[in-house]
């Protein structure tokens, strides 16, 4: 059973920064596509950012573009999210996700982590 574990969630004031990390275990290959999603209270889970680990291509939701940076670790099974200029509307549980099929980035096939809480106060 593949396990994705997020870490780094915390409570910060608006304008602050946080760095989230995600590591996979029980997985013997490399991921092509990893992503971050988030879910705020009372809302549906929403897309944040994606990285293609073969060439480092990155993609972002408009709401975080210019403030968040997604990156992969040395192993193509780790993921980070640098979050700067945080806003209260960034408050959510942040989830790490990965597609087990090389060349695919299909959220319907993702492995998901359990999430880490980020709270931004005004």
Task: Summarize the topology.
Blueprint: E1 3-7, E2 11-13, E3 18-25, E4 33-39, E5 46-52, E6 57-60, E7 68-72, E8 78-83, E9 92-99, E10 111-112, E11 116-121
Parallel strand pairs: 2-11
Antiparallel strand pairs: 1-3, 3-8, 4-5, 4-9, 5-6, 7-8, 9-10, 9-11
Task: Give a verbal description of the structure.
- This protein has 122 residues and is mainly β.
- Helix content is 0%, strand content 50%.
- It is built from no helices and eleven strands.
- It has strands at 3-7, 11-13, 18-25, 33-39, 46-52, 57-60, 68-72, 78-83, 92-99, 111-112, 116-121.
- Strands 2, 4, 5, 6, 9, 10 and 11 form a seven-stranded mixed sheet that branches. A four-stranded antiparallel sheet has the order 1-3-8-7, with no helix packed on it.
- Strand 7 (68-72) and strand 8 form a beta hairpin.
- The protein is globular.
- The termini are far apart.
Features:
single chain, mainly beta, seven-stranded mixed sheet, four-stranded antiparallel sheet
